[in-house]
Amino acid sequence: MIIKSFEDIMVWSKAKEFVVLVYKHFSNIKDYSFRDQIQRASVSIMNNIAEGFERQTNKELRNFLFIAKGSCGEVRSMLSLAVDLNYISLKEKEILSERSIEISKMLSGFIKTL
Predict the structure, then answer these.
(1) Rounded CA gap, 6 and 52, in Å?
(2) pLDDT per residue as tens digits for the range 27-81
(3) What CATH code is carried by the domain that includes residue 55?
(4) Which range marks the domain in which residue 79 is found?
(5) Number of domains the chain contains
(6) 1 lies in a domain?
């Protein structure tokens, strides 16, 4: 498959779906600082994939994919804290963490192909 735009990248689509889930799970949290940070970190995943692709070099795309992986880790770290702060249930954390791990693995695979 030829990738003509970042919208054609499967991991970008998965990351976008993940952002929507994060926004839905944390939309009613009154801790605005926490909510904004976890939402920004999730958006960073998809945006770094897009920005790296638009740079039009494999070297830069690779760098941005590593940044996106880092944002996956940041989200998972915050999910752990969200459970401790009773913002989400352990089950919700597990569901969101699994999605984040799936995206991180897809990013690793993409990096290896570059």
Answers:
(1) 9
(2) 999 999 999 999 999 999 999 999 999 999 999 999 999 999 999 999 999 999 9
(3) 1.20.1440.60
(4) 6-113
(5) 1
(6) no
Residue 32 CA: distances (Å) to CA of 27, 36, 71, 78: 9, 6, 19, 14
User: What is the model's pTM?
Assistant: 0.95
The answer to whether the beta carbons of residues 25 and 96 sit under 8 Å apart is yes
Identity of the amino acid at 99: R
114: exposed, middle or buried (C-beta count within 10 Å: 0-12, 13-18, 19+)? exposed
Phi-psi region of 12 (alpha: psi -120 to 50; beta: other; left: phi over 0): alpha
Instruction: Report the pLDDT value the prediction gives residue 2, as an integer from 0 to 100.
Output: 85
